Amino acid sequence: xxxxxxxxxxxxxxxxxxxxxxxxxxxxxxxxxxxxxxxxxxxxxxxxxxxxxxxxxxxxxxxxxxxxxxxxxxxxxxxxxxxxxxxxxxxxxxxxxxxxxxxxxxxxxxxxxxxxxxxxxxxxxxxxxxxxxxxxxxxxxxxxxxxxxxxxxxxxxxxxxxxxxxxxxxxxxxxxxxxxxxxxxxxxxxxxxxxxxxxxxxxxxxxxxxxxxxxxxxxxxxxxxxxxxxxxxxxxxxxxxxxxxxxxxxxxxxxxxxxxxxxxxxxxxxxxxxxxxxxx
Length: 280
Known about the structure:
By secondary structure, this protein is of the alpha/beta class. The protein has two domains: 4-28 and 63-152, Rossmann fold (3-Layer(aba) Sandwich), CATH 3.40.50; 155-277, 2-Layer Sandwich (Hypothetical Protein Tm841, Chain: A,domain 3), CATH 3.30.1180.10. The chain has helices at 15-21, 45-54, 66-76, 95-105, 122-136, 141-152, 165-169, 206-218, 234-244, 260-266, and strands at 4-8, 23-26, 29-32, 35-38, 60-62, 82-87, 111-116, 155-160, 187-193, 196-203, 223-230, 254-257, 271-277. The strands form three sheets. Strands 10-9-8-13-11-12 form a six-stranded mixed sheet, with helices on both faces. Helix 9 (234-244) links the parallel strand 11 and strand 12.
C-alpha cells in the first residue's frame, strides 16, 4: 500500500499540487477577533492580507489539535498502513507535538512516523514534494522518510521582509531579534537556522532584495527544485521568476502565495525563494 504523506498549510503547497501528488494538508488556524479561520480553507490569502493591513489588531494563530490529526490518521488508515508526517519547525509551532499526541491515540491501526522539518514555507514544501515523489514510485515508509531527511540536508530558504514588525509582534522573531529597532530604511533578508528565523543581511530596497534572492539561487550550480512565493508583491515575484529562467526552467519553478498563518508574521511585503540543491 502506498505511503500517505501529511504536512501542514505552512508548507505553502497549493491545493492543486497537493492533490496531484497525493499529499494531505492539515490546516493551522488564524484568528481575527472572535472569529477563527482554518488556514487557506475559510479565509483566502487575498482577504487575509487586506485585513492584516487594515484592521487595528493583529491576528493570532494556533496549531492543529491532536484530534485534527487523529481524524486524518483514521481516514487515511482506510487506504494505507503507513503514514509519514512532515511538519513545520517545532521551534515555530506546536504542530509536530499535536501530531505526536495523535499518533499515540491510533498506534494500533497504522504505522506513523513524524519528522520535524525545522523548516517553514517552501523550505518545508519542497522537502514534502521530494518525499511524495519517492512514495509515488512505491517506496515504503522507511525509504520515504529517508528521502525527506536527505532533502532536508539540501534545502536552502531565503526570504525578503519589508518589515520585521509582524515577526516581532507575533513572537516568532527567533535569531533575528537583534535586528529589531535598528532597521529604518533598510530591509532584512532572513533564512532558517536551527529551526528559527535568522538574519543573513539587509538591503536598501525591494529591488535590491530581489537581486539578492536571484544571486542566492544563482550561487548553486545544480538545482533539483526551486520555488518563489510571495505575500502581496505579485509583480515583483513574477519578475523574479522570469529572471530565474536564466538558471532554472521557469515552467518548473514552483509558485505559491505565502499562507495566512505565515503572513501573520511575515507581513504583506515578503518574498521567499527556496532552493533544493541537487545531490552531489
